[in-house]
Design a protein that fits this description.
The complex is a heterodimer of chains A (about 80) and B (about 220). Chain A has one domain: Mth169, Chain: A (2-Layer Sandwich), CATH 3.30.1280.10. Chain A is an alpha+beta fold. Chain A is about 30% helix and about 30% strand. The radius of gyration of chain A is 16 Å and the shape is elongated. Helices cover about 25% and strands about 25% of the residues of chain B. Classes of the chains: A alpha+beta (about 80), B alpha/beta (about 220). At the A-B interface, α1 and α2 of A face loops of B.
Chain lengths: ~80, ~220
């Protein structure tokens, strides 16, 4: 089984990299890009039977820094 | 006074930190990241600057979950001293021994230069070598030194006198100009600037030497 973890900076935490990407898109002539937030996608190849709770624990202990980041888990 | 300095794969200021502690009179033992215990009788653990584990995932995140860091947490919880510089500060926030987090510099650039630091009102042993309000010159060298924490956490750090150093001219976007903070018991200090790179006039500044001398001096008396 596989899990896909999305890690994003929490709302309200300034994302300087996203801002730089937004400026670069403007410089390329793309108008109307009002905001860019940059995050990470982490794909996990897991033993069958791994529970969502175990993946959540992985996020809490290592994959995300919950001081500044939020995460979502998709199992497939 | 016995100090342990940890080396992770990618640490690059471990020797400088060890020499800084030795110059102030400490006996220094070098410790490897795979060790699961600290040597007997260690009073202070130094967590050096560098790029532990290549800064993979987040700066300090893998190091914070290494075998030696479990021993460092136990040492800190028993009231032991811990000093983290630069990547060491990032490791200390990732272990949650210090609050907040260090994000990418607001200007997105790696910055390597000497900056002014104001010594804050902070009663910890780390600052015995300085006077509150004094401005010292210490080098920084980091890409992810932008200190952030929730507004109420920042208020609490300031209210409890746990800010150790403030930038006089904020180089990286850090909240409230914070360059270093201490734990609630004053025994853990994390700071982005490198006092171990300002030990003698040939380094351009010897202001860092007073941190080591003040700390080791006050620990020896205790």
């Amino acid at each position: 089984m596989k899990a896909r973890v999305h890690v994003m900076l929490k709302n309200g935490v300034l994302d300087p990299q996203g801002e730089a990407v937004r400026h670069a898109l403007g410089a390329l002539g793309f108008e109307g890009v009002n905001g860019v937030r940059q995050g990470k996608v982490i794909e996990l190849d897991l033993a069958d039977g791994t529970s969502e709770a175990q993946v959540t624990e992985m996020c809490e202990k290592l994959l995300a820094n919950t001081v500044i980041e939020g995460y979502t888990v998709e199992l497939s | 006074m016995r100090a342990a300095v940890i080396t992770f794969p990618g640490s690059n200021c471990d020797r400088d930190l060890a020499v800084g502690l030795q110059m102030a009179g400490a006996e220094v033992v070098r410790v490897w990241h795979k060790d699961s215990t600290l040597p007997d009788g260690v009073d202070l653990v130094g967590i050096p600057g560098g790029f532990s584990y290549g800064d993979y995932l987040r700066c300090g995140a893998i190091a914070a979950n290494s075998p030696i860091c479990a021993a460092v947490k136990t040492h800190a919880e028993r009231g032991g001293y811990v000093f983290g510089v630069c990547n060491g500060f990032q490791v200390l926030t990732e272990t949650r021994l210090l609050p907040g987090a260090l994000m990418r510099n607001a200007g997105l650039k790696y910055i390597c230069r000497t900056v002014g630091l104001e010594v804050a009102e902070n009663a910890s042993d780390f600052l015995h070598g300085y006077d509150a309000g004094q401005v010292i010159q210490i080098p920084i060298a980091h890409h992810d030194g932008n200190y952030t924490a929730a507004p109420d956490e920042l208020d609490r750090l300031i209210g409890e006198g746990r800010v150790a150093f403030r930038y006089t001219d904020n180089p990286n976007g850090s909240a409230r100009d914070i360059a270093g903070i201490t734990s609630a018991n004053g025994r853990v200090l994390g700071m982005m600037p490198h006092p171990e790179r300002a030990m003698e006039p040939a380094h351009g500044s010897s202001d860092g030497a007073r941190l080591f001398a003040g700390l080791i001096g006050s620990m020896a008396q205790a």
